[in-house]
Specification:
- This protein is of the alpha/beta class.
- The protein folds into two domains: about 180 residues, Glycogen Phosphorylase B (Rossmann fold), CATH 3.40.50.2000; about 150 residues, Rossmann fold (3-Layer(aba) Sandwich), CATH 3.40.50.2000.
- β7, α5 and β8 form a beta-alpha-beta unit.
- The longest helix has 23 residues.
- The mean pLDDT is about 95.
Length: about 350
């Protein structure tokens, strides 16, 4: 099958890694895969995948129409069977490209969005794939009757296993794009309220909040304890050597970094979010999102007891191969329905 994925960029983030792993797995299964984006550092990890650069990240109707015409032309020439959009602007582009080419399109919903005109294309998709049950509940509420199957993000095998930190320092770890909704500022404030102890926090990731987070760290006198390392393409190596993984997101469709930490057996403190509860076996140990005092207490308890009190069910997390097979089944259903409607 010939499939074309559209996403804003192939830079750092859960959507990008989802597409990276899905595209590579589909290619390994023998499918023809094209990824359209504005480019990015993760592009180098695509294997056997066609790469097309277009300004599909820009929220400009004229630019989006230009991209739609280009993608429609590619879809006709390459005999593409499915257009697969990730994020809102790509959804508009996929919708228009589908109208121009006659190729059906679907979207994967990775996050919660405001209920506004930006969601109009999702009503036109053949189906909406949701990466968590909480997202399924959200989108099926907006679009009653719309098919919203759940396919959890699949992960490749980790080359590392969790061993924990060596020495007397308790090493906490945060991994994620540095945006406000990831909760890093809450985490930094929480550490400023933690009683003195031998601890450190490593922050892996880039993003628009990087400078503000570093300024806050210095203003709180934590620059000798909190370290910013920027983007890292091997976060599993850090997870294997940390004492505790921290997931302070304020909202989340389904966090890939959380899923990776759970799959590796890393002790984890996480926000009490609907998607997180889907993987949790003891929701009482989850922490109220955005509550600095609650996070300070949870971190302090770990420093005292060496345990999080939280439990997670790693068996719910599929492999990337299982994810890809589930997605292909949906592709087949959409293709068969399209062929039937043509007849």
């Amino acid at each position: 099958m010939n499939v074309l994925h559209i996403l804003p960029e192939m830079d750092e983030g859960g959507v990008e890694r989802h597409v990276l792993w899905l595209a590579n797995e589909l290619s390994a299964m023998g499918h023809t895969v094209t990824v359209v984006s504005a480019g990015g550092k993760l592009e180098a990890q695509l294997k056997g995948v066609k790469i097309v650069h277009l300004p599909v990240h820009r929220k400009n109707p004229l630019t989006a129409l230009y991209s739609a015409f280009r993608i429609a032309r590619i879809a006709k020439r390459e005999k593409t069977a499915i257009l697969h959009a990730h994020s809102r602007v790509p959804a508009w582009i996929a919708w228009w490209a589908s109208l121009l080419s006659g190729v059906p399109w679907i979207a994967t919903c990775h996050a919660f969005y405001s209920r506004n005109a930006g969601l109009i294309p999702y009503k036109r998709a053949r189906l909406l794939v949701c990466v968590s049950e909480s997202l399924q509940l959200f989108y099926s509420g907006i679009f009653p009757g719309r098919e919203c199957p759940v396919i959890y993000n699949g992960l490749p095998p980790s080359p590392y296993t969790w061993k924990g930190s060596e020495g007397g320092t308790t090493k906490f770890l945060f991994v994620g794009r540095l945006t406000r909704k990831k909760g890093l500022l809450v985490l930094i404030e929480a550490f400023s309220r933690v009683a003195a102890g031998t601890w450190s926090l490593d922050v892996l990731g880039d993003g628009p909040l990087s400078a503000e987070a570093q300024v806050l760290t210095v203003s709180l006198g934590l620059q000798d304890r909190i370290f910013f390392h920027g983007f890292c393409d091997t976060p599993e190596k850090w997870m294997a050597q940390c004492s505790c993984f921290l997931f302070p997101s304020l909202e989340e469709g389904m966090g890939l970094t959380l899923m990776r930490a759970i799959s590796m057996g890393v002790p984890t403190i996480a926000s009490d979010l609907p998607a997180v509860r889907e993987l949790s076996t003891s929701t009482r140990a989850l922490v109220k999102p955005g509550d600095v005092n609650a996070w300070a207490q949870a971190i302090g308890a770990f420093l005292k007891n060496g345990a999080t009190g939280a439990g997670f069910d790693g068996s719910k997390i599929p492999s990337k191969a299982e994810m890809a097979h589930s997605v292909v089944l949906l592709y087949d259903i959409v293709s068969q329905r399209t062929a039937g409607s043509v007849r």
